[in-house]
Amino acid sequence: MDHTSELEKINVGGNENGKSETEKTYSEVESRHSPFARQAFISTGAFMLSFGAGATAGFSSILIPQLKHDMKNHNFSTEMESWVAAMASLALLFGNMISGYLMEKMGRRASQILLSVFYIGGWTIIGFAGNIHLILFGRFITGFCQGWLGPLGPVFVGEISSPAYRGLFLAGLSLSIASGVFMSHLFGTFLHWSHASFLCGAFPLFGCIILYFAPESPAWLASKNEIDRCIKAFQWYRGTSAAMKMELDKMIEDQTKKKDVQSKLKTLTVNIKKPEFWKPLCIMIVFFIVTQLSGINVVCAYATDIMEVIIGNNSNTYAAMLAIDILRVIALVSACILLRRKGRRPLALFSGVFTTCSLILLAIYLYMLEKRIIRHISPIISLSLMAIYVFVSNLGISLLPWNMVGELFATETKGLGSGISVMMTSVAFFGTIKTAPAMFKSFGHHGTYLFYGISTLFGTIFLYFYLPETRGKTLLQIAEEFRYGDKGRKKETTELTSV
């Protein structure tokens, strides 16, 4: 098909009323709802799936203590405990492997609907499980879906949202994960783990229902040369303003040209050589690994055990866990607000510095307790340090990689780039979760937190030199800047001015 002639029909083709085909199609898509409301509604479907991802990450905190109680006459070893927590993170890698392929083959919307079905099945298996093997199998399936969703959710939300709202909606994904952690802990505090799992399965069910009514991602439709559907979907999500028309025309032109190039080369080697691919790939791999090595997901997975050490009072363990969960949600709500005002880079650096400081201070305090330099544990001090750590890490280090993976990659390499970078975080995720019990036992909590603090410090130094700012920029502008550096900004500005 001649992409150039197709694009000319869309941009300059007239009709009997003197209107272009684009203008005619724009006029056909009317709604009483604003683009923001439509983007928010469909993003809620992705948020519900992210609730399920958060519940998967946090479920082991309430599952392990109940299993220890249920299996008190049997040996529930440290190794078994680590597998119950880490089984889901092991499956992340396999979910990542298929995510990029399915989002490119099936589309973003259809892939999320299929994912929802598997997610519901995984939670159902856990709910009906009568032995540890079925529990591990269910945990594997839910972890598989969590990995599947990792690249998919940010890509979909990033492509359907306007630049002004993209940061807010992408931050909403991380907020949903934190809320899912809190809800799984809340369910497990008052209910048996089997009943809690059924409630967790309701999140992907609601997400599936919402996404059923969603149009497909306009960028994906353009990449498949489905121009008419692309225009209608873009207008439904983004509206019909002059600025949106300009972005739509530029996106279609960019995607059709890129499709011609890809059809001739079709090799990963070509993408690796593109600076708009390998530069964001390196940044995202490091950023994701730093997130895991900061230890924030270890706190989610082993919250009850960690709280026992932090406060030294078993009777208040669950209350402290829920308080930390609420603080995590508050931090992410604050981050959603700050992202629109301060941007990604300042939050990342602020979060990295203070996460490092809080971890090292917590490690020093716990070391002083162990060496009896301090005679009695003060729950106020230890819990305050843990609270500061959770709050500042969720302002940036924990939030931003998932936010930015939907922004940094060009559309034609988004599935590949996001898939590779999230696969790397899955490896790091499994490594930190699986090794945490052994590290706590061998090095103590103070040694483990010191390791996480030093890792975060080195990661923050890297981000200071290489992390770009993406606030308020279109996906095309971001790709141009990686491709041409500072010249990309001038090139993009000149092109948009001349349109």
Automatic annotation (TrEMBL):
InterPro entries: MFS_dom, MFS_sugar_transport-like, MFS_trans_sf, MFS_Trehalose_Transporter, Sugar_transporter_CS
Transmembrane segments: 40-63, 83-102, 114-134, 140-160, 167-187, 193-214, 281-304, 316-339, 346-368, 380-403, 415-437, 449-467
GO cellular component, one term: membrane
Keywords of the record: Membrane, Sugar transport, Transmembrane, Transmembrane helix, Transport
Keyword Metal-binding: no
Membrane topology category: Multi-pass membrane protein
Keyword Transport attributed: yes
Domain of life: Eukaryota
Biased composition (Basic and acidic residues): 18-29
A GO molecular function held by the record: transmembrane transporter activity
Domain Major facilitator superfamily (MFS) profile residue range list: 38-471
Main localization, broad class: membrane
Sequence segments annotated as region (Disordered): 1-29
Compartment(s): Membrane
PANTHER family the record matches: MAJOR FACILITATOR SUPERFAMILY (MFS) PROFILE DOMAIN-CONTAINING PROTEIN, PTHR48021
Protein name in UniProt: Sugar transporter
Organism name: Danaus plexippus plexippus
